[in-house]
Write a structure and sequence with these properties.
single chain; mainly alpha; 3 helices; about 0% strand; membrane; transmembrane; DUF5658; DUF5658 domain-containing protein
Length: about 120
C-alpha cells in the first residue's frame, strides 16, 4: 500500500493550495512566536517564572537575545526538515511550530490574568 498521490484525493476548502496553506501557516508561526515571547517576558516582569527548563536557562543566561536565538533555532530546524517533505506535506512544519507556541501564549495570558 502506498500513500503516494493520496493528498490529491483530498482537496482543501475553496481554492486553497498547499503552497497557500503553508504561507498562511508561516505567518501564524511568526505571530505565535511573537505572542509567546511577549507574554513570557510580561509574565517574568510581574514575577512569574518560566516553566520550561531549557527556556528558563537561556533566559536567565542571555535574556531576550537568548530567547530569540532559541526560537530562531527551532524555526531553522523546521525549515531544514521542511526540505525533506514533498511540497503538499510541507504545511505540517509550520503547523507543528505554531500550535505549541499559540498554546503557550494562551496559557501565558491565562496565567498573567490570574496573577493580576
Amino acid at each position: 500500500m502506498s500513500s503516494e498521490g493520496a493528498f490529491f484525493g483530498h482537496r482543501l476548502p475553496g481554492d486553497v493550495t498547499p503552497v497557500d496553506l503553508e504561507r498562511l501557516l508561516w505567518m501564524v508561526v511568526f505571530l505565535a512566536l511573537a505572542a509567546d515571547i511577549v507574554t513570557t517576558f510580561v509574565g517574568l516582569r510581574i514575577g512569574l517564572s518560566e516553566s520550561n527548563p531549557a527556556a528558563r536557562g537561556v533566559i536567565e543566561g542571555h535574556g531576550l537575545a537568548g530567547m530569540l536565538a532559541l526560537k530562531a533555532f527551532a524555526v531553522g530546524v523546521g525549515l531544514l526538515c521542511r526540505l525533506l517533505l514533498e511540497r503538499e506535506y510541507r504545511p505540517i512544519v509550520p503547523a507543528g511550530l505554531a500550535v505549541p507556541w499559540l498554546a503557550a501564549a494562551v496559557l501565558n495570558v491565562y496565567t498573567i490574568s490570574s496573577a493580576l
